[in-house]
Structure formats: C-alpha cells, structure tokens
Design a protein that fits this description.
Layout: H1 2-5, H2 9-41, H3 45-94, H4 97-101, H5 105-147, H6 149-159, H7 164-196, H8 198-203, H9 207-259, H10 265-294, H11 296-309, E1 324-332, E2 341-349, E3 353-358, H12 364-371, E4 379-384, E5 387-388, H13 394-400, E6 401-404, H14 415-420, H15 427-437, H16 463-477, E7 481-485, H17 493-504, E8 510-514, H18 520-523, E9 528-533, E10 536-541, H19 543-549, H20 552-560
Parallel strand pairs: 3-8, 3-9, 6-7, 7-8
Antiparallel strand pairs: 1-2, 1-4, 4-5, 9-10
Helix pairs in contact: 2-3, 2-5, 2-10, 3-5, 3-11, 5-6, 5-7, 5-10, 6-9, 6-10, 7-9, 7-10, 9-10, 15-16, 19-20
C-alpha cells in the first residue's frame, strides 16, 4: 500500500502540512486558556480584552485551516482511491478466462465496493488523522515539560498503558475485519444470484423461500459486523477508561502544586488542557493503529489481485493472419472426471468455411474456447501461422478473432454502444453491419432506433433480436476469423439462413461454426464439416462425402437433420 499512499506526494504533503499546523494550534489553546484565566484572576481588564480579541482571530484562522485540511484530504483520498480502484479493476480484467471464472462476479463487485470502503474508512483516513495526533502528542509533551516535568511524567506513565491495547486486540480485530470482508462478498454474491433469478422466483412462487435465504445471509453478515464493531468498542472503551484515569491523575497532581503555590489557576487550566493533549491523542492513536492493523488481510487480498495480474512473460504480437490455425494432439479437461478434448488434432486454413457438428458434450464449444485463448492448461500444441499460442500475446489473438455466442450478453447501454463496444466506426461501416446482421429490420420498432436503451442484459429485446445484435457486434470488428457458437440458434430458419449465407459469401473471412442445425442447403456451402465425438474428431469432409460414408455424420443427419431447402 505504500506506493499508493505516496503516489500523490504533493497532495499528501499539503494535507500533512495543514493537519500539523492545526495540531500545533490545538496545543497552543492551552496557553490561550492560561492567559485568559490569569488576566481575569488578576483583574487586568485591558489584558483580558486583548486576549479575547486575539482568541477570536486565532480560532478564525484555526477554522480556515481546518477547512483547507479537510478539502486537501478529500482530494488526496479521491485521487488515491481512484487509482487504487482502477488498478484493481484492470487486475480483475487481466485475469485469464479460467482464473476469472474461478470466482463469482459478485466477489469482484464486493472488492470494488465494500473492501474499498473499508480501505478508506479503516486505513487511509486513520493514517492521515494519526499525523495530527502525533503532532499534538509531541507538541503537548514538550510544552507540558516546560511548565512542570513532574506532571508530564505522571501523564506519560499512565498514558503508556494505552499501548497495550493494540498489542492485545490487534490480531482478533484483524481476523474479524477479514471475516466481514469475506462475508460481504458472499452476501453480494447471494443477492446478485437472487435478483438474476427473479423470473424463476416469480414463476415458481418461491418468494418466501428466497426471502428466508436473504434473511439468513443478512443475519450472518450483520452478526459478523457486530462482532467486529464489538471488539472495536472494547478497544475504545478501554482506551477511554485509561485516558480518564490519566486525566484524573493529572488534575490531582496539578491541584497539589496549586495548593503549594507552584502553579497559578490559569496554569492549572493549561495543564489539564495539555494533559488532554497527551491522553486523548494516545487513545486515538491506539484506536486507529488497531483499525489499520486489522486491514492487513483485506489490503493483502486487494494487492494480490493487482500484483498477480501484472506478471508478464515475453510474447509475440500477431500482426496478421496469413495461413492457418493448427491444433496437434490437444487434451484438455475442466476437471479430473473426464477429458473435454482427448487427443484432438485439426487445422483451419485462412478464408475457408468450417462447420463443427456433434452430439452435446462432444467438445465443440470447448474447441472454440481454446481457439480464443481462454485456457492455456492443455496438453498438445496450438499454433497460429506457426506461432505457438503460449508465445502469442492473448490480446493480439482476440484482435484477429470475434465470436458470436449462443448466450448473448448485452450491456445496459444503447443498441449502438452494444455493437461498437467503445470503438470508433463511421456510419457506413455501422450501417453495413446492421444490414448484414438483420438488426436494421427491427430498428423501426425501437423508440430511438439505434440510440435506444436496451435495458439490463438487453431485456428490452427478444432473444432473436439480441442474437442479431451479437452478429452485428462481430461483423463490425472486421476480424479475419469469425467463430459462431450456435450463433443463429435463436433466429427463425429463414433469417438464420440469410445471415449465415451472408457470412459464407464473404471471401476474405475464415468462418468456424458450431451448429446443431443440420440443414443440407447450408452445410453444402462449407468447405469442410468436422464431426466430433467424445472430445475428438471422428470424421471430416464435405457434406456429400460424409453422407456417402454413412458413418457418424450420416447418423446425426438422419436423426437431427433437415433435408428441406430453406428459402
């Protein structure tokens, strides 16, 4: 965390300067009280009036300084947390497909909200406030030594007991704050899951069940918060008790010196005020040290996201796709139960069109995921134009491929923003993508056409309309390789045929399609049909060749295929 604390040194130094200046002014209040009381006791009217006027000016300056201190602190915290959140966000998105999906997305949401809030309130702010506390402590101790060393010795001796508190309660506080952080993630995950399943909840009338689950999770997280706050309360109560005892000791000793004539009444007031400047800063420091130490696990978790994702290896950036993608003896498993791909070997030549077919669970979608570079823990070799995938920059692979998924995700933005995905395209390119994808056919029913808001995950669109948007999203990228994972499954046969026909007519495009729609009029257009079963290629060739062979593809086609021409 040190590099983030020191990233904005100018704002940090300014904040520290104003806070230190304010702390010194707080110490000087004791001397002002002493002068006011002593001039009043001596019936020095002119001196009393002068001190009142001075006090008014002094506290006005103190108020202005406090405003400047808080403003610079807010700016410093804003800048620091903005950078910290950005690095965490980038770290999350730099994760590879496997690592990213190993955590629930609600965990990431919790890290960027709940955990960041804890970093601000229980780490950064206490750190900054401790600077002022230390200055007050040092300044007060020095001034009190000048007034009376014996009083200073008693105050320091009794206040020293306060330092036992973080030593005793630091570890349990850290554990409980870490428990709160983890449970917040679980709670956020559950809430996200419940709201995502709203339609199921209403359809099956399980509102009461879901409410019960919510109450259980809510009770758990609130109980853990209570335990964390409880131990902090113990720390603060012990600090206050020891602080008050120190103060009483100071008043008693000061009263003794007043009776002996060694202190004036004004000086006694100053001593009591200065004793507060030793006891309470120590109390505050102890409380804040306990908080800061308690954030160790949370900070480590957040920094590990940033640091782990920054690990880099030397990679080659692919400039263009010239020849082929070749997979040799690929074996891959999601878990130890079975191989999703088992010794698969296949190649895809530039600008050719491929259809991948097979029964459910045969490894078709897994093959596409490996082509996209989602996983790298496979046996065998994948090479693009002779470059092994493990040596290629993953971003450059993605720059040469786009995919149309079966399950389409839509951002809660406009239709246009969901197609261009933050990139710049001229109107002509956009219009072409809208036309070729069939999106233009339903634009007229949207209130603002291409600038219409489509809602959370595109809930203002039908399944078929969302799939057309996904097709437009891929086409506008103009990548040399296009993958379709049941990319037209939500469309009617006529529209699916027209869109697939458009894609197959693009000469400088390599198309790799996973499909269950075995329509001969379309399949005959593909250069090669690849048949998969049990994670391997069992047959490949043109449509006519595979039909004549009367093997695996023939069985699939006669069971699932449609021989009727689609027009």
């Amino acid at each position: 965390m040190t590099k983030y604390i020191l990233r904005y040194k100018g704002w940090l130094a300014t904040t520290v300067l104003f806070r230190a200046f304010g702390a010194i002014m707080q110490v000087l209040i004791a001397l002002i009280i002493q002068q006011i009381v002593d001039t009043a006791m001596n019936k020095d009217v002119n001196g009393f009036i002068d001190m009142i006027i001075f006090s008014i000016i002094f506290f006005m300056i103190m108020g202005i300084n406090d405003y400047l201190n808080k403003t610079t602190q807010f700016i410093y915290i804003k800048k620091t947390l903005t950078d910290f959140k950005e690095d965490i966000f980038r770290g999350i998105l730099r994760k590879n497909y496997k690592d990213f999906n190993s955590e629930n997305t609600a965990e990431y949401i919790s890290q960027l909200t709940n955990d960041i809030n804890m970093v601000e309130t229980k780490y950064l702010v206490p750190y900054l406030e401790m600077i002022g506390d230390v200055v007050i402590f040092v300044g007060t101790t020095a001034l009190l030594l000048w007034i009376n060393p014996w009083v200073t010795l008693v105050v320091c001796a009794t206040s020293a007991l306060l330092f036992l508190i973080p030593a005793i309660l630091g570890a349990p506080t850290a554990k409980r704050q870490d428990d709160v952080s983890k449970q917040n993630s679980i709670f956020t995950t559950r809430i996200k899951d419940i709201f995502s399943g709203y339609e199921v909840i209403k359809s099956y009338n399980i509102v009461d069940n879901m409410t019960e689950e919510f109450l259980d999770e809510n009770s758990t997280v609130e109980n853990l918060k209570f335990k964390s706050n409880h131990i902090q309360g113990i720390s603060q109560a012990l600090s206050m008790f020891l602080g008050v005892m120190s103060q009483i000791s100071t008043i008693a000793l000061g009263g003794y010196f007043l009776i002996k004539g060694q202190l004036t009444v004004g000086t006694l007031f100053a001593v009591v005020q200065l004793a507060n400047g030793i006891c309470w800063p120590i109390t505050w420091i102890v409380s804040k040290v306990t908080l800061v130490k308690g954030m160790k696990e949370v900070n480590f978790k957040l920094l590990s996201i940033i640091n782990e994702s920054k690990k880099k290896i030397d990679t080659v950036k692919l400039e263009s796709f010239k020849k082929e993608i070749e997979l040799k003896d690929i074996t891959f498993a999601y878990n130890e139960d079975r191989n999703a791909l088992d010794g698969l070997s296949v190649s895809f030549e530039k600008d050719k069109k491929y259809a991948i077919v097979g029964r459910s669970g045969s490894g078709k979608s897994t093959l596409l995921k490996l082509l996209l570079g989602y996983y790298d823990d496979f046996d065998g070799e994948i090479a693009l134009d002779g470059y092994n995938y493990d040596k290629l920059d993953k971003n450059s692979i993605n720059n040469h491929m786009s995919i149309i998924h079966q399950n389409v995700y839509m951002f809660d933005k406009t239709l246009k923003e969901n197609i261009i995905l933050g990139k710049d395209f001229n109107d002509e390119v956009l219009e072409k993508a809208l036309e070729n994808s069939g999106v233009s056919e339903f634009l007229r029913v949207l209130p603002k056409g291409v600038d219409s808001e489509i809602g959370e995950n595109g809930n203002n669109l039908s399944g078929g309309q969302k799939q057309r948007v996904a097709i437009a999203r891929s086409l506008i990228q103009n990548t040399p390789i296009l993958l379709l994972d049941e990319g037209t499954s939500a469309l009617d046969s006529k529209t699916a045929f027209e869109i697939e026909d458009t894609l197959l007519n693009i000469e400088d495009l390599t198309v790799i399609t996973v499909t269950h729609k075995l329509i001969d009029s379309i399949l005959k257009r593909y250069d090669e049909i690849i048949v998969m079963d049990n994670g391997n290629v069992v047959e490949k060739g043109s449509f006519d060749e595979l039909i004549n062979n009367k093997k695996e593809f023939y069985d699939l086609y006669t069971i699932e295929g449609e021989s009727e021409l689609v027009s």
